[in-house]
Amino acid sequence: MVPGVPLPPEIQLAQRLAGNEQVTRDRALRKLRKYIVARSQRATGGFTPDELLKVWKGLFYCMWMQDKPLQQEELGRTIAQLVHAFQTREAQLQFLRAFWQTMIREWVGIDRLRLDKFYMLMRMVLNESLKAVKIGGWEERQIEQLLELLTAEVLSPDSQAPSGVKSHFLEIFLEELTKVGAAELTADQNLQFIEPFCQIAARTKDSLVLHKIIQNIFETIVEQAPLAIEDLMNELDTQRSGEGEEASDGDDGDASDGGDGDASDGDDGDASDGDDGEASDGDDGDDGDVSDGDDGDASDGDDGGASNENDDDSDESSEDEQDLQDTPPKKQPAGTMRGAGPEADKEQAWNDEENTGPVLQFDYGALANRLFKLASRQSTPSRNRKRLYKVIQKLRDLAGGTFPEDDVPEKAYKKLLEGRRERKKKKKRLSKPQPQNKEGCLS
């Protein structure tokens, strides 16, 4: 380096972000945010991919040096929120791409003691990535761009991502999408978010990736179906009551005229507790040794399927395919109560008192059809086809109103189809087995 020539700002900031003193790191992080805002506002002042990789290397070691759990969480959130400092969508995507490339490059050097903090950072960056799309109004092109980036860097067979990165990403994707978008996203938009996982599941030769997609994406959708139907019914009830059809529980048919219907303009309590939380008291950076515990991919044990199934799998798969084509979705006869039994008394999960958040809505028939189209291709490995056909059957059952858990969601589904509205009662289900006396006889 020529004496007297200053280093580029990105390198200077990266060096300070990786410094031993927490005060230095905190100050560098604040300066970095201001620098990003100022530079990305210029018409011709965008960042190059190489510059962003330098910035992310500094941010990676800034996280590396932070040992205190509460400060780790605050630092991770501050780093993830840097994506909103970029003033254009293209610059945000470049920043996110540099993050995933940095995690992939540095993963093998992360030791067990530091693994959790980087798992947390991945989760927070994904969360803020989805919030950036939400701020853009869930515009279709922005969703597509984010999914293309994530597929290319993490999911694609051509990606260099270690198993640990892929595994953790697949474990958290649906959770974070639910947190950010469950209250707003439509079934069609959710199908767009799931499309890359459908395609990868149909063609991947990585048994871990196949297993994680089926377990953490498709099986989770099936498990959450009763909650999704219940959410939809609650939303329909709210809309109908909002239209002025106040269904009173009493017999009085008088139109209650006390009508100043105060539309509770919900003070939407913006939770932007934007205090900066600068923990400028510590020189805890005594820990800068980059130990290369070669232990990054902590999840390569679950193999997701048997490996040598090629002899008679094709015959079985063709039979399964024929079954899926010929068999309509199962529907419960009217009045059938699937969950009635002693265990049904224990389950009050669908009570009004349960405080569960919204879940993602899906068109189960459309998702089943999309998976079937991909799984039935000749190029789809037989192992993938077998496992996907099992998922497809469950989705088709859901589309026909058959739920995996108990009868309450089925009743909600019937109400949805028939257009009836009933006020939910805070009671146990009506159909219960008759109580038995001590001798086992019916009382």
Automatic annotation (TrEMBL):
Instruction: Kindly report the protein's main subcellular placement as a broad class.
Output: nucleus
Region annotated Disordered, chain positions: 238-357, 417-443
Bias type Basic residues, positions: 422-431
What are the protein's UniProt keywords?
Nucleus
Q: Does the keyword Nucleus apply?
A: yes
Provide an example Pfam family for this protein: Nop52
Q: What's this protein's name?
A: Ribosomal RNA processing protein 1 homolog A
Organism per entry = Apodemus speciosus
Task: Recall the taxonomic lineage recorded for the source organism.
Answer: Eukaryota, Metazoa, Chordata, Craniata, Vertebrata
